[in-house]
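Moderator note: this is an archived Q&A kept for reference. The question asked for a predicted structure of one protein chain; the sequence and the answer are reproduced below.
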Amino acid sequence: MADRVAAGATVTFRPSGSSMVPLIRSRQRVVVAPVDPSKLEIGDIVLARVAGTVYLHLVSSVDLAGKRVQISNNRGRVNGWTGHDRVFGICVAVDGTARSGAAGKTVAADSDESARA
């Protein structure tokens, strides 16, 4: 999914796991669109690579000068800092409900509904 979003596609998939409950429950359908990382804020849910692993997790801190964000789950575990170049997309909807705060942070993207998992 990360490669498709990095290439400019908006993707729909169903992540598994419980680290983002109640924001995202396991197997709920999410829509992730390419993002302008300079517009990210604490609380945004992003698809990002941290230390070699791709996560759909929260932005927990922002360092605009260093062009990086800190990624954490919704249970208090910090995954680490990652550069803007490793933030691929922002979650714009969960099970058909738009995520507030995501509007205006996406970049032009092509829909890729075939990316369902």
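Archived answer notes: The CA atoms of residues 16 and 26 lie 4 Å apart.
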